[in-house]
C-alpha cells in the first residue's frame, strides 16, 4: 500500500505561480511512476505530468509543457508540481497518483495508477 497526501493548492490570479506537494509513504520503490492528474468541473480527470523516483525523464501533457515542472525529493519521498504562468483553464482539483505495477512504462491514463491522494483544489482567477 502507498499513501499519498497532497498539499499546496489555493487561489491565485492568472499569471501567478503555485507549488503542489505530494508526500508518499508505504511501499514505494525506485522504478515506481508518480503522476499528477487534474479534474476540472464537468470534465474527466486528465494527465498532467509524471516521473519515476529514479531516472532523468519527466513527462508532461501538451497543455502544461513549458509552464509546469514536476520534481522530486527522494529523501523526503515527496514529489512536487511547480506551476507557473497559471491560466484560468488550469483551475481544477489536482491529484497525486502512484503506479503500483513493476516493469511498466510511464502511464498517462488514470487506470494505470493504483494509488491516489485526496486531491487539492487550485483556483485561478482571471
Notes on the protein architecture:
This protein has 126 residues and is an all-beta fold. 0% of the residues lie in helices and 50% in strands. It contains no helices and 11 strands. The strands form 2 sheets. Strands 2, 4, 5, 6, 9, 10 and 11 form a 7-stranded mixed sheet that branches. A 4-stranded antiparallel sheet has the order 1-3-8-7, with no helix packed on it. It is globular and about 40 Å long.
Secondary-structure blueprint of this entry?
Layout: E1 2-7, E2 10-13, E3 18-26, E4 33-39, E5 46-52, E6 58-60, E7 68-73, E8 78-83, E9 92-98, E10 115-116, E11 120-125
Parallel strand pairs: 2-11
Antiparallel strand pairs: 1-3, 3-8, 4-5, 4-9, 5-6, 7-8, 9-10, 9-11
Amino acid at each position: 500500500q502507498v499513501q499519498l497526501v497532497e498539499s499546496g493548492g489555493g487561489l491565485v490570479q492568472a499569471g501567478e505561480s503555485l507549488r503542489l506537494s505530494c508526500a508518499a509513504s508505504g511501499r514505494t520503490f525506485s522504478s515506481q511512476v508518480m503522476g499528477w492528474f487534474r479534474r476540472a468541473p464537468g470534465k474527466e480527470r486528465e494527465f498532467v505530468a509524471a516521473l519515476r523516483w529514479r531516472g532523468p525523464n519527466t513527462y508532461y501533457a501538451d497543455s502544461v509543457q513549458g509552464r509546469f515542472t514536476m520534481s522530486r525529493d527522494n529523501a523526503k519521498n515527496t514529489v512536487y508540481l511547480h506551476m507557473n504562468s497559471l491560466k484560468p483553464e488550469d483551475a481544477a482539483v489536482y491529484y497525486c497518483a502512484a503506479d503500483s505495477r513493476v516493469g511498466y512504462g510511464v502511464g498517462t491514463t488514470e487506470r494505470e495508477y493504483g494509488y491516489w491522494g485526496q486531491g487539492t483544489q487550485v483556483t485561478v482567477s482571471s
